[in-house]
Write a structure and sequence with these properties.
742 residues; alpha/beta; GIY-YIG endonuclease; Rossmann fold; seven-stranded parallel beta sheet; binds adenosine-5'-diphosphate; binds zinc ion
Length: 742
């Protein structure tokens, strides 16, 4: 047996894996992630490294392979736990060990840590006054200014002194030599949390909140670790619950990670954590510079941080003694990495927690089917918050049948009811949000008269219209010519939905002249902090109506919003993947949750062509359980997750014919290895976006009852791909339980 070892855990050197033989006394002892000592280089210097894998065959002359000397003294350091996590990620999601290591290990700093210098007075006040007198007497004005300044405040920032007091370096040196002052230098580790004066907001917990915290704490303090799902309606006080749980864990000397999707990670949220945990909170997000990120890692290493907040990647914060990982909005698709390794932060958090003896708390108003399924199985513990904390009531929700509007001759995007309600709010000087639900929209075709949607006869997902006049299923590749007339009712109002946020803005301005309108979509949020700027302008009531895509349903509380309009709720309903109903339910619930967050009661209007669809009906009633039951029926019937497990294999290449042939070969291979019928193979077919920058794409799906069968299949496919030169020019990626397959 041989061990694959990486020598230095610096990002630049990760590409080098060295093979060492394992002496008999270490056989069966070494594990992935363990730190070992090996001879390295020409001089065979004793160097430490980490085991990242094992192999049975030598990559070159076995006589030349050196032997592992032994285990390192200080084993199970934080790095080795992260290496072990990387090994888990590689096995569970595919890709190489190096890709996995690059994901979990912090980038090492290239620039030096910035230093902050301070000038400190060493004399007593009396002595200093005496010195000041001497300087004044000798007419040494600069020295006098410096002394007077330090008498005022005995320790001051170096740069401030040189600037404010206009004192030059030689003057400071002269006083330093005489023992009057000293210049101290410390590392300046920037803390990106800019608001220093956050105040802690004391709340009296509701009974539900109290019960959730105690249930968690009873386990935790009794040494029981587990995974919990806080299912709480928007505004039920989940964040307060997380903070209390974190506070208790931190008190025991351990640390916590809080994952929040980037889009929901507003200053409002960070401030609340800051108010509670002060300087011992840090944040990692994509807006930080590389240097600032390194500073945060360094602060963690020095034990200056107890709570790290951030999106997906904050999960790998190198805390020495992690006690709790919170995953807020656990249903968010952003938790799935779109790059190899395509890991899901929820599952990876649970895996890391298992390795560290930590607990995981998931939270959502609309839990993912996966998470709720695990609660039903008893693997996660369910903690419910059914009421809003500050005793605001939940909004009233109305659905408007857009087919009826068409019958009455209203062909506009806005229903008459919604128009009337907007007029009413504008008169009352209350605010309105209009939400265009475009997530995952992939050109489905529907009838505006009867709501009929053209679907694949084999997969029960909608077909996508393509410019060449054909309609395609992006799961199995089924094709048919596009339809000009509704097969159900014969109407000619059948086609794709074309309006975007820009058109809606124009329309709203025309219908409600004089209203102040803000628009939030990819175009208007491109600048730095663009997202934040629009939201705070709306929060400051600088506009009456905010129009936007799914971006507007997250984050800020707008107490003056009393009406939320959902335009075309169906757009996400018929996106061509198996999660479209779930996404729709989540988006509608979340959009509704924006209404009535203040004292005034809120109302929600959902416009749809399919008011009878269960995801719209249950969202309108805010009935999660009802939705879950219906949706699970569909998942079970079709064998989609979480009822079964799904593996997508992405193939990309510049030669379309070659790519298609290779995809077929891979399919045939999976059919060959399908012993006992554990796998079912679907496709290959072209995804909705079939070509990106001249690279063609194909996708192959494999379903199985159990995840481990898919891992086996992946491992065999990886070997097959490695051995066959026909795949050399292609990029092949594995995507377990895929979220985005357009
Ligand atoms: P969620 O995360 O579930 O949306 P939050 O924790 O953000 O809920 O709470 C929503 C609002 O209610 C916040 O303004 C919060 O300060 C307030 N809040 C939370 N818990 C209580 C409580 N027990 N009493 C009063 N107000 C509360
Ligand atoms: Zn029709
Ligand atoms: Zn199909």
């Amino acid at each position: 047996m041989y061990a694959d070892i990486i020598i230095d855990i610096a990002h630049e050197k990760l590409d080098q894996v060295f093979q060492y033989s394992i002496p008999s006394e270490l056989e069966g002892v070494l594990e992935v992630g363990m730190e070992v000592v090996v001879p390295f280089g020409k001089s065979n210097k004793e160097t430490s490294g980490y085991v990242v894998g094992f192999s049975e065959d030598a990559d070159y002359d076995p006589k030349k392979i050196k032997e592992v000397l032994g285990r390192a003294e200080r084993s199970m350091a934080i790095e080795s736990r992260l290496v072990a996590l990387a090994a888990w990620i590689k096995e569970y999601y595919g890709g190489t060990m190096i890709q996995a290591l690059r994901t979990v290990l912090p980038v090492k700093r290239k620039e030096r840590v910035q230093k902050k210098r301070r000038v400190r007075l060493l004399l007593s006040e009396e002595e200093a006054k005496k010195q000041l007198d001497i300087c004044l007497h000798k007419n040494q004005r600069a020295r006098a200014r410096l002394l007077a300044g330090l008498l005022d405040q005995p320790e001051q920032d170096y740069d401030l002194i040189t600037h404010k007091l206009n004192v030059a370096l030689p003057v400071i040196r002269a006083l330093e030599e005489r023992g009057i002052l000293t210049v101290v230098s410390e590392d300046l580790l920037r803390n990106p949390v800019r608001y220093k004066q956050a105040e802690r907001q004391e709340v009296q917990f509701t009974r539900e909140q109290q019960a959730a915290v105690e249930s968690f704490w009873q386990d935790y303090s009794g040494g029981v670790r587990g995974t919990y799902l806080v299912h709480g309606v928007t505004g039920s006080g989940k964040t307060e619950v997380y903070m209390e749980m974190i506070g208790r864990v931190v008190k025991t000397g351990r640390q916590a990670i809080v994952l929040i999707p980037e889009i929901a990670l507003t200053y409002q949220t960070v401030l609340r954590f800051y108010g509670r945990f002060g300087d011992r909170v840090s944040i990692l997000n994509s807006r930080l510079s590389a240097g600032e990120r390194c500073d945060q890692i360094e602060r963690i290493r020095r034990g200056e941080v107890d709570v790290m907040i951030g999106p997906r990647s904050a999960l790998f914060a190198p805390f020495p003694d992690l006690g709790l990982i919170v995953v807020d909005e656990e249903h968010e698709p952003a938790y799935k990495s779109e790059k190899v390794p395509r890991y899901h932060a929820r599952e990876t958090a649970i895996s890391r927690a298992g390795m560290e003896g930590a607990s995981v708390v998931l939270g959502s108003a609309t839990p993912s089917l996966e998470a709720f399924y695990q609660c039903r199985n008893g693997r996660y513990k369910l903690l419910e918050l059914k009421n809003r904390a500050a005793s605001q009531s939940l909004p009233d929700v109305y659905t408007v049948d857009m087919r009826e509007e068409l019958k009455h001759g209203n062909r506009s995007i806005l229903s008459d009811r919604l128009k009337d309600m907007i007029t009413d709010r504008l008169q009352k000087k209350e605010q309105v949000m209009l939400f265009l639900n475009r997530r995952g929209y992939a050109g489905f075709v529907s009838c505006r008269s009867c709501g009929y949607v053209v679907k694949c006869p084999h997969c029960d997902v909608s077909l996508s219209a393509h410019k060449n006049g054909r309609m395609i299923c992006h799961y199995c590749g089924y094709e048919q010519p596009s339809v000009k007339q509704c097969p159900e009712c014969g109407s000619e109002y059948i086609g794709g939905f074309k309006a975007g946020t820009q058109q809606i803005e124009d329309l709203v301005k025309k219908i409600f002249p004089g209203s102040r309108v803000l628009r939030m979509d990819l175009d208007t949020t491109r600048s730095k902090d663009g997202h934040e700027k629009i939201l705070s302008a709306f929060a400051n009531e600088e506009a009456d109506i905010l129009i936007g895509t799914q971006m507007i349903v997250k984050g800020h509380d707008f107490p003056n919003v009393t009406l939320v309009g959902v335009l075309a709720a169906d757009l996400s309903l018929y996106s061509n993947d198996y999660q479209s109903a779930e996404r729709t339910f989540q988006l509608l619930s979340q959009a509704s949750g924006r209404a009535g967050r203040g004292r005034k009661k809120g109302e929600v209007v959902i416009q749809t062509y399919s008011p009878e669809h269960y995801s719209i009906q249950t969202a309108a009633k805010q009935d999660y359980q009802g939705f879950y039951e219906e949706e699970m029926k569909y998942r079970r019937l079709m064998g989609y997750p979480p009822a079964a497990q799904l593996l997508a294999v992405w193939l990309t290449g510049s030669d379309e014919e070659h790519l298609k042939k290779a995809a077929l070969y891979l399919k045939e291979f999976t059919v060959r290895i399908n012993k006992g019928g554990r796998l079912s193979v679907i496709g290959p077919s072209a995804p909705y976006v079939s070509k990106i920058s001249d690279q063609y794409r194909q996708i192959l799906y494999i379903k199985s009852a159990e995840y481990r069968f898919l891992i086996e299949a992946k491992n065999l496919m990886e070997q097959y791909i490695e051995m066959n030169t026909g795949f050399d020019s292609l990029r092949i990626q594995f995507d377990f339980n895929p979220i985005n397959t357009t």
